[in-house]
User: Which sequence fits this backbone?
């Protein structure tokens, strides 16, 4: 097969490309330039898409012995990922930019261009597995549970799964680093990227404030009593405890958490931890990694990248929305997050959460 290997400049994508080439595929490496003005160097494990990353990717391609190119997708990334991130926070939601990047950039813009150029598959360093099932290719969890990235790939549809390649899904991270060293790849000890790649300093609230400006408002309790003020509701997420800057404790002395964010009233509602328990979620824009389910299904549901999956019942309504009833409540679920539905280790599909409920229905 002709394979386009997305090479970020890190160890995972380098080893993935090397494995694809060693398996006999005709591999071409490509580095995605996602920043209009990339920094020269990374700040430790923060950020990505620097000039240093591009050079690391090129050196890895040279060692592997494959052609290498840089594709400028900065404008598309800014519109589909960065601007979406800002607008979602402005609307009081909590987005996951990694899912949006996989959906809109790596497996839409890149895959579409790759197929148009005659490639058969896009290869990445994600930790997930593609398995041939009775109804076609299936997306499954990785062998290493600590590295599994199937959640952020849950936005891939059936066509995208059919053209995806994840060579690292059956390996442990320690094995990948050891292999990189054996292959002579200089990125063998390079730190992994963490946090949001386009916010290199890790200050999400500051990034949003620069984009959205000051918007002072009130912090209130569930009875509507004002307990504090804020500089912008976009600086909060449901479930947040730290950084609330509430001048006085709750009457019972217990910590308070963000329960709700209203961009219309610019109010942040806080309350007790148990009020964060969610028993059901409703999601829009369902995306199915294989055939869509027929009727309600028993499943496992996961609502954050590093969260634990819980038993659930999922079904699609007449309006096309996905409703997931959680048999075990999950704490601190926010609109804007994704719910990913699994059948065992197989990814069934995902949806963007629009509403949550403390009852079994939404």
Assistant:
């Amino acid at each position: 097969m002709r394979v386009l290997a997305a090479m970020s400049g890190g160890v995972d994508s380098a080893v993935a490309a090397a494995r694809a080439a060693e398996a006999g595929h005709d591999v071409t490496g490509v580095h995605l330039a996602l920043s209009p003005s990339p920094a020269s160097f990374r700040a430790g494990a923060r950020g990505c898409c620097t000039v240093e990353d591009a050079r690391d990717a090129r050196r890895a391609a040279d060692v592997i012995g494959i052609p290498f190119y840089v594709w400028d997708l900065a404008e598309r990334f800014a519109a589909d990922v960065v601007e979406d991130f800002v607008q979602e926070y402005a609307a009081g939601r909590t987005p996951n930019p990694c899912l949006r990047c996989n959906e809109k950039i790596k497996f839409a813009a890149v895959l579409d261009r790759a197929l148009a150029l005659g490639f058969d598959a896009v290869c990445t360093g994600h930790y997930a597995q593609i398995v041939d099932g009775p109804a076609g290719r299936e997306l499954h969890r990785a062998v290493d549970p600590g590295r599994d990235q199937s959640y952020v790939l849950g936005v891939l549809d059936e066509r995208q799964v059919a053209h995806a390649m994840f060579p690292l899904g059956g390996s442990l991270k320690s094995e990948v680093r050891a292999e990189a060293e054996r292959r002579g790849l200089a990125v063998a000890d390079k730190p992994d990227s963490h946090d949001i790649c386009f916010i290199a300093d890790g200050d999400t609230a500051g990034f949003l404030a620069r984009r959205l400006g000051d918007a002072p408002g009130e912090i209130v309790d569930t009875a509507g009593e004002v307990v504090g003020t804020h500089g912008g509701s976009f600086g909060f997420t449901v479930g947040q405890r730290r950084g609330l800057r509430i001048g006085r404790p709750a009457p019972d002395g217990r910590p308070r958490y963000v329960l709700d964010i209203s961009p219309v009233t610019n109010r942040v509602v806080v309350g007790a931890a148990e009020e964060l328990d969610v028993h059901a979620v409703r999601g829009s824009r369902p995306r199915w990694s294989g055939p869509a389910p027929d009727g309600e299904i028993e499943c496992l549901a996961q609502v954050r990248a590093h969260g634990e999956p819980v038993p659930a019942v999922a079904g699609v309504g007449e309006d096309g929305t996905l409703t997931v009833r959680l048999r075990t409540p999950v704490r601190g679920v926010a609109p804007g997050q994704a719910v990913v539905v699994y059948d065992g280790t197989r990814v069934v599909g995902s949806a963007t959460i629009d509403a949550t409920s403390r009852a079994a229905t939404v």
